[in-house]
Write a structure and sequence with these properties.
- There is one protein chain.
- The chain is α+β, with helices and mostly antiparallel strands.
- It has five helices and ten strands; from the N terminus they run E-E-E-H-H-E-H-E-E-E-E-E-E-H-H.
- The protein folds into two domains: 213 residues, B-lactam Antibiotic, Isopenicillin N Synthase, Chain (Jelly Rolls), CATH 2.60.120; 37 residues.
- A seven-stranded antiparallel beta sheet has the order 1-8-5-10-4-2-3. The chain has a three-stranded antiparallel beta sheet with strand order 7-6-9.
- The model has no long low-confidence stretch (mean pLDDT 95).
Length: 257
């Protein structure tokens, strides 16, 4: 299928923008209504825009009628408490789909790598329209925590680790990358996540704030990386075996009915 894509993502698949002064903004996220919604890790989400403006976080394709992750409807109860967060989501002028604040509890590197996942942003996205990417604005100050990106889930050599101080801004093709956050804690991490549609508006926003790939990763001992991948591979294989056994048991029960 042929989608409109940003040239800024052609090689790297992500860009890091200039940071902004988050300390100058009120901590609006502390006043939001959060709902239990699990992503990669121990999380809750506060919806800012959802499929029909309800206080929920489900994918737009899981509603009636099902649709792409575009044209999100502002959730009034949270928007009233977070006008600046809404304005930050609207600033690029690109179409906004899902928009929410994530609360992530502290974890470790192994847990983050185990939880690497790809998004399905472009499910039902019509051919010939803008490719949907995700913007990440770090609200809390977590300079020792990182967003992990991998083109290959099982190949650590493809790993990018992007620090998350307050005011950091990233735009990522999260359908291209396996991703998760390694949050060192000790307090929860908060981030504004917005689905944006690629096009000239988003291109201008990226150019305005000097969006470009990160030059180098924060250091991490290679033995830690290798040992972690070995353990994660073991855990994933063990999980696959359990799921396979459950599937075979169910199939046998169905045959007996």
């Amino acid at each position: 299928m042929s989608y409109i894509r940003s040239a800024a993502f052609a090689d790297s698949g992500y860009v890091v923008l200039d940071t902004y002064n988050q300390a100058a903004d009120p901590e609006e996220w502390l006043d939001l209504t959060f709902v239990d919604w699990k992503s990669s890790g121990d999380t809750r989400f506060a919806p800012i825009a959802s499929a029909f403006g309800q206080m929920e976080c489900n994918g737009f394709w899981n509603h009636t009628p099902p649709r792409a992750d575009k044209d999100g409807v502002w959730v009034q109860g949270n928007v009233e408490r977070a006008p600046i967060l809404k304005a930050r989501a609207e600033e690029p002028g690109a179409n906004v789909g899902r928009c929410r604040v994530i609360e992530l509890q502290p974890n470790d590197y192994e847990t983050a790598v185990y939880n690497l996942h790809q998004d399905d942003n472009n499910r039902l996205n019509p051919d010939g329209t803008g490719w949907i990417v995700r913007g990440f604005f770090n609200l809390s100050d977590n300079p020792d925590s990182v967003l992990i990106l991998r083109e290959d889930r099982f190949d650590p050599s493809t790993e990018v680790r992007i620090p998350l101080p307050a005011g950091s801004r990233l735009i990522v093709d999260t359908q291209r990358f396996w991703h998760a956050v390694w949050h060192t804690g000790p307090e929860p991490r908060f981030s504004l996540i917005t689905s944006w549609t690629s096009g000239p508006e988003l291109d201008e926003y990226i150019e305005k704030y000097n969006g470009k790939p990160q030059e180098s990763n924060p250091p991490l001992d290679q033995k830690v990386i290798d040992d972690t991948q070995t353990e994660v591979n073991r855990r994933l294989a063990e999980r696959a075996a359990v799921l396979s056994a459950k599937g075979k048991a169910k199939a046998q029960t169905d045959d007996e009915d």
